[in-house]
Amino acid sequence: MSNLKINLQAKGIELTDAINNHVITKVTNLGKYLENIGEQILIEFEVGKNTNHHNKGDDLFRAECMITIDGKTYRGETDRHDLYVAIDEVKDMLFRDISKDRDRERTLWQRGARSIKKRIKGFKPWPFS
After folding, report:
1. Which pLDDT tens digit goes with each residue over 104-123?
2. In whole angstroms, what is the distance from residue 90 CA to residue 96 CA?
3. Which domains does the chain possess?
4. Residues 62, 49 contacting (CB under 8 angstroms)
5. How far, in Å, CA of 120 to CA of 116, rounded?
């Protein structure tokens, strides 16, 4: 995956090898899904720790990711009590958004192709004739 560029940042916590490996694994799985795209894919991932003063000082971990593909931006963020769960949830959100967008593009293309086929066969008149 030569077209995949990953920027990983940690705020409020130390970026350990375990966290780094977990993020890289999850992001690489997204990259495998997107590998047929010839464009450069930029993935910016940020993990951090904030205190949630409304929950009596319980620590919350924040995972935030922004993916830029061919000029389109997909973004996901979440706060959870476990950092690894937050990373997994962000990856799932982004996977869902990207697949929904790809399905929408495919459906629009197929609808257009069907419309042209109907016009060629003569079932539907051309709008400019």
Report:
1. 888 888 888 888 888 788 76
2. 10
3. 4-121 (3.30.160.100)
4. yes
5. 6
